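BUG-489 | component: ligand-complex export | severity: low

The export step for adenosine monophosphate jobs runs without errors, but we want the raw record kept on the ticket for reference. Input record follows.
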Amino acid sequence: MVKSPPRMVTAEDDDHPKEECGLFGIYGMVDAAALAALGLHALQHRGQEAAGIVAYDGEQFHSHRALGLVGDNFNSPDVMTRLVGDMAIGHVRYSTSGDTVIRNVQPLFADFKFGGLAIAHNGNLTNAYKIRHELVQRGCLFQSTSDTETIVHLIAISEYGRVVDRMTDALSQIEGAYSLVAITQKKLIGVRDPHGVRPLVLGRLGDAWILSSETCALDIIGAEFVRDVEPGEIVIIDDKGLRSIKPFSKKPNRFCIFEYIYFARPDSVMEGRNVYAVRKNIGAELARESHVEADMIVPVPDSGVPAAIGYAGESKIPFELGIIRNHYVGRTFIEPSDQIRHLGVRLKHNANASGIKGKRVVLVDDSIVRGTTSVKIVEMVRAAGAKEVHMRISSPPTMHSCFYGIDTPQQSELLAANYDLDAMAKHINVDTLAYISINGLYRALGEEGRSLEMPQYCDACFSGEYPIPLTDHEKDPAQHQLSLLDESK
Ligand code: AMP
């Protein structure tokens, strides 16, 4: 375990896109790209900044990649009729700032000795800069600033012959969190890193095979869920069917616990658990841990809703929609500057004032990151005349940055990393503030608690225990310096 490293702020932080992404792949279906576009629609919550699909028709690869939402880019017959083929992969992506340019939009495509390969990645590699630096010394020319390109170069220089062996060789040099989908001229390939940090599931639609970050994308196309791709597993799908290999040395499972708390869609099933049911359990556990007398439980919509339902059920206090969300504004987090983020919050939520006046309100949200949302929400609930405002959070305090693919700001911007509970309560102006305990969270997931020697999940954002080395962040930041190219967006 690596203990909570200080996060270095370098040019890389502005430039390097931190991926929060969704993946989809399909093999053996006419108009594969159309189904990929539908799948990406269902995965849109995993990334709203860019989307891309690459299809292969038996002779040629066809690619369309664009900044913006799936619906805005994959809706025209001009685009869709060009993406011919019965296999395709797609990607939705969210990067925090800086290099949101087309050269970083996935799937990445490259022409190798063995033919073409398109690849898409969810997660963050933690030694990509170190390897990139070495590859550049050897003469490799990088086209993007995406860490995924490092995998592409390692595949290119591998001395193995077959593509899966080259990929295995490349990935055995990589550290970090990754789920990958790729297509070659013959195969659809899916990979999960040895710790299984990011999700990837396998589905079937008739004779076609599907890979997806979440099961909600299987539902949208009427595909059947087969199973999760296992940590460290590579699945290879071609005209002989599906083959699975596990070429990496076995590592303990460390599925990202934040997928359950916030990131995944509630109708998805991850590792056998329905995300909505997990969130309700967390809410119920939170109510048991930090009950407070009140008149109503109010979720901060939408992310706080399932936990608030669980909290209300357990506490027997009525659940009320005391805050209404405008669904036509994007996630607050997406806005680049603080000023806009503030504005965004006001645009997004409004207190349903008539029900709140004179009442003791328990607000339930899934997390506090910078605290911006909580401050605004509490302000509007107080302005609507609430007698008391209590805040309950369905995750432990977010005290550490994620380096494995969930965008969190640097540690100095995390409210819980800088204030104790009382100071945070004062800052957001609530009568009481409580978070679920880390053991309570594990209990809500059906575990006995968090095992100290062997936590069953990656919970580094709460515990500071990073299961995968953070090589790039511990090395000289000068190594990470990338040349910046200003491109039209
Ligand atoms: P903040 O306003 O900075 O405290 O952010 C907290 C809000 O952002 C909560 O309502 C969460 O639902 C949401 N949130 C937490 N983590 C993320 C993330 N990685 N990306 C987008 N939104 C998030």
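Assignee comment: Attached the raw record above. The two ends are 40 Å apart (CA to CA).
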